[in-house]
From TrEMBL:
One of its GO terms (molecular function) is glycosyltransferase activity. InterPro entries: Glycosyltransferase_61. This is Uncharacterized protein. It comes from Dipteronia sinensis. PANTHER family: GLYCOSYLTRANSFERASE. The lineage of its organism: Eukaryota, Viridiplantae, Streptophyta, Embryophyta, Tracheophyta.
Length: 72
């Protein structure tokens, strides 16, 4: 079985963190500062507290590429 990974990077506004913390908070503008506090700080913010609302228009391109891979 052949597996392929297709990356889709969300925009800040696609994250619930945008509304929770605001566009100027370091959680949005400088994720590295949160990551530098360690795994548990990272997990608390980005894994436990975040929900994502995918922009279907942007995500379409990823789906089209996936369909092309299936057809091969």
């Amino acid at each position: 079985m052949r597996l392929n990974y297709l990356e889709y990077k969300i925009e800040p506004k696609e994250s619930s963190l945008w509304e929770t913390y605001g566009e100027n908070d370091s959680v949005i503008t400088d994720p590295g500062s949160v990551i530098s506090k360690g795994y548990y700080a990272f997990r608390d913010v980005y894994l436990d507290k975040q929900n994502v609302k995918i922009n279907v228009g942007r995500f379409r391109e990823t789906l089209v590429r996936a369909m092309k891979l299936i057809d091969q």
